């Protein structure tokens, strides 16, 4: 018998995309609890607040005679952070049964990145993991449209679907009384 070296899994890198219009609201509080309790050992974390990286309106150039422009400014920052992560986490409260505007606009720009020269976006996203953390003031079934958007995005991109951590609350701090969410947060990213 010969000793074979054990292949080590590369360190994971989590990009937390905060899409709340409130800083440190319920959704961010729940995501930070989950990250602190359940990220794999050695995992890197990067937190980006999408409102701090405002994006221009998305222009669909797929069928125009124009080439997709090279991402620049905040688009470049978000593209580079996205490609550097093994795991993307949408930290997004439920707004009108779906993602907040900043998160939806970020996803809209993925369409442009799919066609941007030299980016090879879809192939590079393949095999990564997409997660969601959300807090809502209603029953969990009201989050289904948002969950569907994220799950279908993962599927389309060939990404693994990690799931969504749901919390309940409206006023800041309410989620800290949601015992079910707090228990699930302890192991959410371990799965």
UniProtKB/TrEMBL annotation:
Annotated Flavodoxin-like fold domain residues: 15-171
The record's section on InterPro entries has: Flavodoxin_fold, Flavoprotein-like_sf, ISF_SsuE-like
Q: Name one Pfam family in it.
A: Flavodoxin_2
Top-level division of the source organism's lineage: Bacteria
Task: Show the Gene3D superfamilies listed in the entry.
Answer: 3.40.50.360
Q: Which UniProt keywords apply?
A: Flavoprotein, FMN
Q: What's the protein called, per UniProt?
A: Flavodoxin
Q: Which organism is it from?
A: Streptomyces rubellomurinus (strain ATCC 31215)
